[in-house]
Design goal:
Helix content: 40-55%
Number of domains: 1
Largest sheet: none
Shape: globular
Radius of gyration: 15 Å
Structural class: mainly alpha
Number of helices: 4
Length: 104
Amino acid sequence: MLPNKPRGVGRVDDRRVLNGIFYVLRTGSPWRDLPERYGPYTTVYNRFNRWAKAGVWVQIFEVLAARSPQSMALIDSSIVRAHQHAAGGKKGARITPLAVLVED
C-alpha cells in the first residue's frame, strides 16, 4: 500500500517514518524538531507529503473506518479545537497532517 521510489541512498524504514509521522501528529511538534530516532525530519516530511499526494492516507483511513464500529463514527467537539481565526486562511491549499485525515 505504501509506494516505493528506488534510490541510491539507503532507505529509511517505513515503520520508523510512520512512527515519526505519528509523533508529529500526536505532539503537534514542528517537523524540524522530530527526534533523530525517526530518521531525518526531511525524509519523514517528504514521505508524509508523497503519501498524501498518492492518496495513501485516504486509503488507510477508509480501511480503518470500514473496520470500526458505527459508534466510533462521531467526532466529539471537545476534541476538535480550532483557533478563533482558523477559518480565515489566505494561503492556497496546503497539505498538513490534519488536512490529510479530514479531507473527503
